[in-house]
Amino acid sequence: MVTVGIPRALLYYQYYPMWKVFLEKLGAEVVVSLPTNKSILNSGVTRGVQDTCLPVKVFFGHVVSLADKCDFMFVPAVTSLGKKSYNCSKLIGLPNMARALIPECPPILDPEINYEKGRYNLYRNIYEVGRHFTCNPFKLKKAVEEAWASNLDYRNKMSDEGITHFQAIDCKPPPDVKSSSLTIAVIGHPYIIYDEYVSHRLISWLQKMEVKVVTPEMVSQEELDAATRRLVGVPHWSFEPEIIGAGEYYLETGVDGIIIVAAFGCGPDSMMLGMVQHRAKEFEIPLLPLSLDEHSSEGGLLTRLEAFLDMVRRRKRVCV
Amino acid sequence: MRIGFPHFGNVYIALKAVARRLESPGDVLITPPPMTQHTLDLGVKYSPAEACLPYKLTLGSLIEACELGADVLIQARGTGICRLGYYAKGQEQMLRDLNYAAHFLTVDISHHKFIGIMRLMRDVTHNRTWHEIISSFFFAIGKLSALDRIEKVVHKIRAVELEKGTASRIYRKAITSIDEATKSKEVKELTKEYIEKLNRVPKDITAEPLKVGIVGEIYVVIEPFANMDIEIELGKLGIEVERTLTISRWVKYSLFLNYLGLDEWRKVHKLAHAYLDHDIGGDGWESVGEKVLYARNGFDGIIHLAPFTCMPEIVAENIMPSTKEDIPVLAVTCDEQQSKQGMLTRLEAFTDLIGFRRRRGEHGRRV
Q1: What ipTM score was computed for the predicted complex, to two decimals?
Q2: A175-319 — its CATH code?
Q3: Would you say domain A3-159 falls under CATH 3.40.50.11890?
Q4: From B311, which residue of chain A is nearest by alpha-carbon distance?
């Protein structure tokens, strides 16, 4: 049986269920790398140039750790997911960077997903991947349809039940939320906030501090898109709704505070953060921007979180 | 209407040329002062900390234009993949916060390019005739390509001139006199005159200067303030510089010839194909292809200029070392923290390295 490796990084969090169904229906065995740990991070950091952002370095680490465990590596180049909106260049050039920096990596399956190039291009790219496993186009079509259905299920599950990527992927029950007085929105790319090693278990720390955490994927895609349009008009980046849309949505619905988690040197975030910060000032809602890189420590993060929560709590007491 | 714009290489000369023909008492063009440390400081102060250098510099330049009383600002916009598409959104908000009553006119540089520019010119000049607008546009483009032609010669002369600085002096003179020219014919004559003047500069005939190609992000490659006059410094070290990115070339191809099916980058993209097979936004794809091109053309080295945290150039930087074509690459990251001395030291070391390589004739071996 052919084994296909999926690195547990970047777009894994958004699309793993879909990829898994697709590859398994085609008769492949899927291997996922272990959750990020120190050795994965270190092996990734030493590969790329130093200006590369942390999530991409982590991704390289996962590819290195999977290199001898599979026959193919699945790294799609997700260029564009909507009209006139694109992903970050690093995601678009991801398979090429992996090939250049990790020579020991097995052959990379890199379908280009580009909305702007139209339907035919998309079908052809998916077919090229499928050809490695089956010559039967009908089998491939069925696999694609089932994969897409599972993707929709996954998304609806998260927004309907208010659970995170983790819980949806592993089918874990949501933690019993104690009656908490504070609601904090944690906004950021899933590959940062749900990578426990990168984000230093930010969400579980917040839950331990008796805070109700809400995240971007707990809002339905339509509402995120609408909120983005209200604030900036046509989105420029494909993942703009999950930062700007979620920021605007939670600011409008009124949370007690917002924490924006970004990787140091993230190009799109550096621009979008400014927009949300500006908006938070207008709504007078406290906002904590956190910038993470490979040198940030859990202790420093906790101190800032505690100070922020104290501030939010005191503010709430005074207001009420 | 008082129209301001951010500085970008010699673009101000083109805009001034247009203004000279179309300006009326009500509509004037405000040229911001040349970029200085003050511009950069302003930009850094009012930009998000992790924004890229072109964003900060253009914001600083726009603030300076606003201080001179500009009430309409021109900025580029596009659906390219890099941050450029976001510049106008962020900068407009920041200027509003700073209480400048300026409103933005954006030039779309990825769709309807030529028609968009024409419409913009018609709007700001209050319906001048199309003939006036188009002829002034071509007059401006003529000036830009004249300057780029002269600059190409300057790059060659700088490396071999006996008295360092002569070519740069002549180039500066050429900029002023072309800026003052009022007719296309005059521009053509001036170009010829200055190129002849440059060719008459006393040169070291025996010298075989090292050749270096400059690749990277278009703003920091073209704007001398952003790259700390790297071309002049290389000339002082006796290095001949070549770069393909120029404004006139961009205008010529992406406004006109691309629609006729001519792609200036086709060759470069083809060369990059083995390492990067699709566009990643900005100038990343071109950087990789140009590395291969320069290596095959027997250049001694490449200088890769990129703003700090530039996404496309980081991808290019990651891919470049793995290419089969072997050529030394010096990656220079431009941001507000850079110092000229630090860069000079790196340039000197790089010059030594490529000099050794050439003397030992080891073009094929990995260094």
Answers
A1: 0.89
A2: 3.40.50.11900
A3: yes
A4: A89
